[in-house]
Amino acid sequence: MVNYYDILKTSPKASNAEIKSAYRRLARKLHPDKNNGSEETARAFAAIAEAYEILGNPKERSRYDRQLLQSEYETPSNGDSVFTSSNTHARRWRQMVYEHRYNEIINRMVAEERREAMELQKLIFPVVALFVSIFVAAMAKPAVFERSAVIGKIILVSLFIAGTIHIYGRIRDGLRRFTYNEDDLHDSIFDDPEPVAKPYSRLAVGGIIAVGSVASLAIGLLVGDQVNLSSHIPTMFAPTLQLEFLLYPPIFVLVVDLIHSLVLRVDV
């Protein structure tokens, strides 16, 4: 049986990121365009592409690992092997080896899925927090900045800048990891060897964020007209939406997302 790990020069215990890195390194080295169309290099390139197609997909990799395990243990180098022996103790030992290797495969898949879920949370959680914060700010119409002292205004502006950078970074990283750009689907593998493997379109996700933000603003304004907090606490809230409204969503997202990150670390 072909050993795809040997082809990519990686360990069977390598993470998905290490598998991807190994593939890219070899792809750059063996791509036919860089080797004057060499037939030997083209065959090697096809081999690493096939290996990455299997090992780069967690489900396919798990299936392949089981097949490789069976191949290793059921195809001895000579006729007298503990792996094919009918001896009771040999069968028991063989079963223990199988279980150990299967547990390694399952544990790796669970760890990869957990990491993927946590990375997805880093995109979803700030976006949801942004929608909620836009709704709350539009509903309440805060007037804290205008009525704050200089030091208060400096703090609010500083938090706004930090929050804006934070939101931008989270959304940028999430879009790179989970979305594809339709214009890039036919780009070279050197830029991204698996653009179509990403589940969402960048345009679609961007549209959801834009529409969600506008909808949150509109709903917040409608609810705010009914609640009218300015009539109850005029020192903190204004009767109409002020320009300083823009300050608060990034600050809210920054604080809530930092708390969420701390909770995740404690949980881990």
Structure in words:
- The chain is mainly alpha-helical.
- The chain folds into two domains: 4-105, Helix Hairpins (Orthogonal Bundle); 116-267, no CATH class.
- Helices cover 68% and strands 1% of the residues.
- The protein contains eight helices and two strands; from the N terminus they run ααααααββαα.
- The protein has helices spanning 4-8, 16-30, 39-55, 58-74, 88-140, 150-178, 202-227, 248-267, and strands at residues 179-180, 200-201.
- A two-stranded parallel sheet has the order 1-2.
- The longest helix is centred in the middle third of the chain and has 53 residues, at 88-140.
- The chain starts with a helix and ends with a helix.
- 18% of the residues are buried.
Structure in a nutshell:
It is built from eight helices and two strands.
Topology:
Blueprint: H1 4-8, H2 16-30, H3 39-55, H4 58-74, H5 88-140, H6 150-178, E1 179-180, E2 200-201, H7 202-227, H8 248-267
Parallel strand pairs: 1-2
Helix pairs in contact: 2-3, 4-5, 5-6, 5-7, 5-8, 6-8
List its salient traits:
single chain; 268 residues; mainly alpha; Helix Hairpins; two-stranded parallel ribbon; 8 helices; elongated
Number of helices: 8
Order of helices and strands: HHHHHHEEHH
Number of strands: 2
> How many domain modules?
2
Q: Kindly state the percentage of residues in helix.
A: 55-70%
Radius of gyration: 27 Å
Separation of the first and last Cα atoms? 38 Å
Structural class category: mainly alpha
Shape descriptor: elongated
Q: Major β-sheet, in short?
A: 2 strands, parallel
Taking strands numbered 1, 2, ... along the chain, how are they ordered across the largest sheet? Answer: 1-2
> For the residues shown, what is the average pLDDT?
80
Query: Which runs of at least 5 residues are low in confidence (pLDDT < 50)?
Result: 185-196
Strand content: under 5%
